[in-house]
Amino acid sequence: MKKTAKEVQALFSENKNDLAFIIGNGINLHYQDDNVSWNDLLLDLWKKHSEDPMTEIPDGISYIEFYDALNLQNVNKWGFTTQLQKDVKKKMFDWIQDDAQNLILDKIKSFNAPILTTNFDNLIPKSMQLPLQRITDTSFTDHYPWASYYGETEMKSPLDGFGVWYMNGMVNYHRSIKLGLSEYMGNVERARKMVNSNYGHSYTEGKNPWDMNNTWIDIIFNKSLCIFGLGLDETEVFFRWLLIQRAKFFKRFPEYNHKGWYLMKAEDSEKAKGKRFFLKSVGIQVIEVADYPALYEDIWK
Domain of life here (predicted)? Predict the structure, then answer.
């Protein structure tokens, strides 16, 4: 479904009391003019840790698989995975934000809506000068700091208002950074325990069957999601799995259903058709806009 910037703005206004935004690396690619590049970072890691020459990541392999290929070359080196995580943290700490992205971030803040990002970098909280916080009375592990967020206020629940949450790890905690497929599967395994306890086994009529765990997982199941800047291709194993679990939960408890939208530049490729099919199956409506300036600028004005 193609919409104008004004139509998307109207959608935001109509749902402003039930919104959360999922932001991927597209925001960096648009506002950083390719100065921030996950592709270049992975190639730098390859040059540092591999004897095989490689000047570009070939077609047919995902970033996750490329990382795994590097890890396999060094599998007998003790602590190598941790070293890679430290290298990523060090490189990302040098990235400088472009505060022009606050056009988007300030609008989201005006809705008092949470942000979930699949990025590892801290460019969003840097732009807004947000301190690191954590939901109190929650357990903490630096492998999965899922109750930690950037925000101006201390919150008792991730649903309380605006904050920036990290789905795949954050640079503050290098061991939380998930780079390879096995590490993403660790995310799934941890989240599965939370999700499986939330299928209404002790459901009381009239009471929300979702058992809050005070991590960003609560946002996925208790807010309408607006997703943008995220390729959401078949390598996004963890987030796609979460969307499937979300759809299952809403089918069992339709009275607690929330909406979902995926914003993208208009595209008519075979890959885009497959993406539309998947998103429709999990209850996410695809909304197309004319171009990237419309996606990252016009709809936020």
Answer: Bacteria
